Amino acid sequence: MKVLQWRIIILLVLLSFFVAACSSSTNSPEESTENEQNAEPEPITLKFLHSHGLDEEGFNKEYKDPIEKEFPYITIERIDSGDLSEVIAKGEIPDIYFVENPIHIMNKYVENELAMDMSELIDKHDFDLSRIEPNILAEHRAYSDGNLYTIPLSRGMTALHYNKDIFDLFGVEYPTDDMTWEEVISLAEKVTGERDGVQYHGLQPAFPNMLLEQLELPFVDPDTDESTILSDEYGDEFVRVLQTMEQIASIPGNMPEESPVDTFLFDWGERFISDRNVAMLPLWQLIEWFSSDDTMNFDVVTYPEWEGRPGINRPSLAYSLGVTQTSEYPDEAFKVIAYLLSDEKQMEWAKMSQASSLTDPAINEHLFEQLINERPSVGDLNLQALTKQTPAAGNERYSIYNILAADQYQPMLRELIEEGKDINTVLREADEEITILLEDEKAKK
């Protein structure tokens, strides 16, 4: 009997050890899920296509180093874009791509089958698009055929720069915020003329396509892929732009004598900064550049506005980032983009003079903070003018052929300003030329 009892006791002890061992080696579903969540992610490499003039040191500082610090399991490998078709031919397919101007989204990234609508990723990762300036977002949708191939990372800042010394020389009051193109042209007439043997020019409309963009004019109808220059919807606005350019060019003494259109449109750096014979320059903000010279006595006001469109600047043409449809790691690539759009990262960039695409005004209040620390005189400038206006949203949609047709704008200005053709003739001939270009391009498809 005693032997039987001892056998039972030994059997129970062994059974308890067996149960304990099993329970310790088998986790509950809840514990398994928790362990999976806490597990270190597998190391991955994300290829980052960047194309906007950053050298390796600059890229590492702005992107690679902070991303790898935030995501220790991610290694960022930079790809210099160069010719995108060559990059693709080499097999260097990126996971993330940088777009310096949304007009290139369709003709570069969509045509090369890299772009991906990120709507599903945005929903999956609960990314709040309402944090982004609506018009900047709308502009990127317009160049993405209504999709969202890239998310804007920054905002362009455009202003009217003016040389105080020239206004003082002519005894004319300085420009102010909220002026229209008509008012700026009228002011330009007062500061154009010769003083002490020097010819001063009141207004140089550098890159005059900005005037077109500000009115959100498409050159090609996105539904019909036909020219809009003479259309009922946009024809009058094209006339309005050319009339404004003609007004500026016809101010006595405002036009340069040699290569008038090329100099008038593109040689702004030499004339405004070096020669200092241009009173007003409407252009993206150049405060960092101008302020590097302590002898440059300048300031800025808001970009000239079109009558009937108060408070509207040109489109932002913001830098943006997208995830490619070929990426093996779309979720991780999107997490990187979301991190770069975090308040913390955007605040950091604002302090380095990159304006944020986010709506939070507190972020852009830090614009030029570092620059002001280095050059206190910058703090005396009218910096609020840079973010006071709302960027134009662009047209609702743009045709993939729009950028091709828009190249006709500069020849139109040459015919108007240098050849003296009337506006109706210029528009008619441009419409004919665009129609031929579109037919040829469609035939290639």
Descriptive overview:
- With 445 residues, the protein is α/β, with parallel strands linked by helices.
- It folds into two domains: 44-155 and 317-367, D-Maltodextrin-Binding Protein, domain 2, CATH 3.40.190; 158-315 and 391-444, Periplasmic binding protein-like II (D-Maltodextrin-Binding Protein, domain 2).
- It contains 22 helices and ten strands.
- Strands 2-1-3-10-4 form a five-stranded mixed beta sheet. Strands 6-7-8-5-9 form a five-stranded mixed beta sheet.
- Helix 21 (409-418) packs antiparallel against helix 22 (423-444).
- It starts with a helix and ends with a helix.
- Residues 6-26 have low confidence and may be disordered.
- Tell me the number of strands: 10
| CATH class type of the largest domain | Alpha Beta
Which fold does the CATH topology of the largest domain refer to?
D-Maltodextrin-Binding Protein, domain 2
Oligomer: single chain
* Biggest sheet statistics: 5 strands, mixed
Structural class: alpha/beta
pLDDT averaged residue by residue: 88
Strand residues, percent: 5-15%
The helix content, as a percent range, equals 40-55%
Distance between the termini: 97 Å
CATH homologous superfamily name of the largest domain? Periplasmic binding protein-like II
CATH architecture level-2 label of the largest domain: 3-Layer(aba) Sandwich
Rg? 29 Å
Q: Which overall shape is indicated by the principal axes computed on the Cα atoms? A: globular
Give the number of domains.
2
Poorly predicted runs of 5 or more residues:
6-26
